[in-house]
Amino acid sequence: MRRVIGIDIHRTFGEVVIWERGVLRRAGRVDMTRTALECFGKTLDPTDEVVVEATG
Fold first, then answer.
1. Residue numbers of the domain that contains 21
2. Exposure check for the chain: N or C terminus, fewer CB within 10 A?
3. Could you tell me if residue 24 is inside a domain?
4. What is the pLDDT of residue 2?
5. Minimal CA–CA distance to 3: which of 54, 35, 50?
6. pTM for the structure as a whole
7. Cβ-count burial of 14 within 10 angstroms (0-12 exposed, 13-18 middle, 19+ buried)?
8. Which tens digit of pLDDT belongs to each residue from 13-45?
9. What is the pLDDT of residue 55?
10. CA pair distance 56, 44, nearest whole angstrom
């Protein structure tokens, strides 16, 4: 089943949402540190699609 992960990136954190089986749910925040991002990345499946939104 297709799963899309959306991340709205801010200066110190990213707000994460997951769209799966037609349902959108909040997945919380992830800190914008290397360690936190690596831990978050390990939770992703190889078939996940990740969409990043960032403004400067």
1. 3-46
2. C
3. yes
4. 86
5. 50
6. 0.84
7. buried
8. 999 999 999 999 999 999 999 999 999 999 999
9. 74
10. 26
